[in-house]
């Protein structure tokens, strides 16, 4: 997962980005399905718009999460600052209380050691002018030191109390803003989940009919890959691995599964050409690419496709969106590496990608 160093200006900037994203029109208003759909496929402007809407909400949800997490961390820092100020204030108050207690002990000791006479009376009854002056000087110095200490601590206490109030007020403002951000984040995620459900419903209908919809035209991100090979999805959790057993497969699992939400962008792992886009069967909606060297990669259980048969693709290019069509128990991408475009020729994709510099 990528991380971002957070500063105080990050939240306003991200809020502006989120506002811009929220103001963007739905892609369905601007896009139409590709008229050059292949055999067994039909165009679908509604599907194109829904796929683009899922991507838009996907992006908004990511930004909203970033904004919320940044605000939450700022609130935690401010709360910690308020707690530190409160602790320092408690220390100062205890220090002043100790000084006052010391003054009381000094006064009581003076009365005990001088027969109950106050210090001023002792000075008046001094046996000589020198004694009077020394007593006066000692008394004045002690009184000044104690008064200065008390005054200094009172000023420090006032400053700390002000800092404590300021930190607490800022924390409350952050908490209020974070409550609003959490509500905004939840609203976007709810809309995204609804759009994902609709996208999957359309995909299931297409698979049941055996007729894939036309390729959707998603806005491709700007990429700057330094290698010729990438993972098929950006963020994922590895689930069923190559060769694992299970009741869902006749023999052994022939690929590597990537657990991702419905609508997640699926990427071409390397440069190649689309040799198959099909619906139906155990793989649901699937894409097969041919790469240099005679290898093929398969991307199955999709919710939508963004490429046409015969099209050339680049490393990292979005070729579709993940789903749970076909023989699938939940949203994921089934990824295979093959030596032919057909099932039954799969090789373990994990070491195959590792040999090309992609560690999963």
Question: Would you kindly provide a written description of the structure presented here, covering whatever features stand out?
Answer:
- By secondary structure, this protein is of the alpha+beta class.
- It is 49% helix and 14% strand.
- It has five helices and twelve strands.
- The chain has helices spanning 10-23, 45-113, 119-124, 129-209, 349-354; strands at 41-42, 212-213, 237-238, 256-259, 265-267, 272-278, 285-290, 296-305, 312-313, 318-322, 333-338, 346-347.
- The strands form two sheets. Strands 3, 4, 5, 6, 7, 8, 9, 10, 11 and 12 form a ten-stranded antiparallel β-sheet that branches. Strands 1-2 form a two-stranded parallel ribbon.
- Residues 1-11 and 20-44 have low confidence and may be disordered.
Could you provide a short overview of the structure?
The chain has 360 residues and is of the alpha+beta class. The protein has helices at 10-23, 45-113, 119-124, 129-209, 349-354; strands at residues 41-42, 212-213, 237-238, 256-259, 265-267, 272-278, 285-290, 296-305, 312-313, 318-322, 333-338, 346-347. The strands form 2 sheets. Strands 3, 4, 5, 6, 7, 8, 9, 10, 11 and 12 form a 10-stranded antiparallel sheet that branches. Strands 1-2 form a two-stranded parallel ribbon.
Indicate the topology.
Layout: H1 10-23, E1 41-42, H2 45-113, H3 119-124, H4 129-209, E2 212-213, E3 237-238, E4 256-259, E5 265-267, E6 272-278, E7 285-290, E8 296-305, E9 312-313, E10 318-322, E11 333-338, E12 346-347, H5 349-354
Parallel strand pairs: 1-2
Antiparallel strand pairs: 3-4, 4-11, 5-10, 6-7, 6-9, 7-8, 8-10, 8-11, 11-12
Helix pairs in contact: 1-2, 2-4
């Amino acid at each position: 997962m990528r991380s971002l160093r957070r500063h105080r200006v990050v939240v306003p900037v991200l809020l502006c980005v989120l506002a811009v994203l929220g103001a963007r029109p739905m892609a369905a208003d601007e896009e139409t399905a590709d008229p050059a759909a292949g055999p067994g496929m039909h165009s679908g402007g509604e599907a194109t718009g829904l796929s683009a809407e899922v991507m838009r909400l996907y992006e908004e949800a990511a930004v909203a999460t970033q904004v919320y997490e940044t605000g939450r961390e700022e609130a935690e820092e401010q709360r910690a600052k308020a707690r530190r100020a409160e602790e320092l204030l408690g220390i100062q108050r205890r220090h002043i209380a100790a000084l006052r207690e010391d003054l009381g002990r000094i006064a009581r000791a003076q009365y005990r050691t001088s027969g109950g006479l106050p210090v001023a009376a002792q000075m008046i009854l001094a046996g000589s002018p020198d004694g009077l002056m020394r007593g006066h000087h000692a008394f004045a110095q002690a009184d000044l030191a104690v008064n200065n200490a008390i005054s200094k601590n009172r000023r420090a206490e006032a400053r700390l109390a002000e800092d404590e109030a300021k930190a607490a007020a800022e924390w409350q403002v952050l908490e209020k803003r974070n409550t609003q951000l959490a509500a905004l984040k939840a609203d976007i995620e709810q809309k995204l989940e609804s759009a994902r459900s609709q996208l999957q419903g359309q995909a299931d209908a297409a698979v049941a009919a055996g007729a894939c919809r036309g390729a959707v035209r998603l806005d491709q991100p700007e990429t700057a890959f330094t290698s010729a090979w990438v993972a098929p999805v950006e963020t994922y959790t590895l689930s069923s691995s190559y060769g694992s057993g299970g009741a869902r497969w006749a023999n052994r699992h022939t690929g590597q599964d990537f657990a991702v939400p419905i609508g997640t962008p699926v990427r071409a792992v390397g440069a190649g050409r689309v040799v198959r886009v099909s619906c139906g069967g155990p793989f649901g909606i699937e894409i097969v690419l041919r790469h240099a060297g005679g290898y093929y990669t398969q991307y199955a259980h999709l919710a939508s496709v963004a490429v046409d048969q015969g099209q050339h693709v680049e490393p990292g290019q979005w070729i579709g969106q993940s789903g749970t069509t076909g023989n699938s128990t939940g949203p994921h991408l089934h990824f295979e590496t093959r030596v032919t475009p057909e099932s039954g020729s799969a090789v373990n994709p994990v070491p195959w990608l590792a040999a090309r510099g992609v560690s999963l």
